UniProtKB/TrEMBL annotation:
Gene3D superfamilies: Potassium Channel Kv1.1, Chain A (3.30.710.10). InterPro entries: BTB/POZ_dom (IPR000210), SKP1/BTB/POZ_sf (IPR011333). It comes from Elasticomyces elasticus. This is BTB domain-containing protein. PANTHER family: BTB DOMAIN-CONTAINING PROTEIN-RELATED. SMART domains: BTB. Pfam families: BTB. Residues 23-92 form the BTB domain.
């Protein structure tokens, strides 16, 4: 499929999502609702596939719906839009800390619903955001983000570290003199080990 054809398909899928045209399922999250299509959820996510078998309810008008009140509505909207369009558009105007938190939330939700392509996109964008934040001297926001990554399951955290650590190389000389960064490292032994074994890491 050419890029032009792919873009056309994505545009049509985005229209389906944004207009709710031909929708056959409502998803409620908090005070938000999303008009979606069962078939598309079925082929995009094994978790939604299971929900479609066992988790559908009907309202008084006979419309099918699912409640996902444990999920943040804004993050859920980003997930659903990606499932339709294969595109992730970050909200505009976020501060560094908020932008990284949003990407963490997107990654967690994509992992929860087993949407691996969005996991990959969120991981790449988060790696980029950390480096940009370090360029802007937003060290505390980066430390907070790294701590949250460290709380992920070990295999997931290692994948993040493998993506992030090489890109941190130009920043490490300064970071190694940051008291908060040095204090964080014992909390994240896998990250610390990867940094210590890198040939370009300054002595701690």
């Amino acid at each position: 499929m050419t890029n032009t054809a792919f873009d056309q398909v994505c545009s049509r899928m985005e229209e389906l999502y944004t207009t709710g045209l031909y929708f056959d399922l409502l998803i409620y999250s908090g005070n938000s609702s999303f008009k979606v299509h069962k078939y598309w959820l079925h082929i995009q996510s094994p978790v939604f596939r299971s929900m479609l078998k066992d988790g559908i309810q009907q309202d008084c008008d006979g419309k099918d719906f699912i409640r996902l009140d444990d999920d943040d509505p804004a993050t859920l909207g980003l997930l659903l839009k990606f499932m339709y369009t294969s595109r992730y558009n970050e909200p505009l105007g976020l501060e560094a800390r908020d932008g990284m938190q949003m990407l963490l939330n997107v990654y967690k939700l994509a992992d929860k619903y087993k949407v691996p392509n969005l996991c990959s996109v969120a991981m790449k964008r988060l790696s980029d955001a950390i480096i940009v934040a370090l360029d802007q001297n937003e060290v505390n926001a980066c430390i907070e983000t790294l701590r949250q990554i460290g709380a992920f399951p070990a295999e997931t955290a290692c994948t993040f570290w493998d993506a992030i650590v090489p890109r941190m190389a130009p920043k490490l000389s300064c970071l190694s003199h940051n008291d908060e960064f040095r204090a964080m490292l014992p909390e994240l032994p896998v990250l610390r080990q990867k940094l210590l074994t890198a040939p370009w890491f300054p002595d701690l």
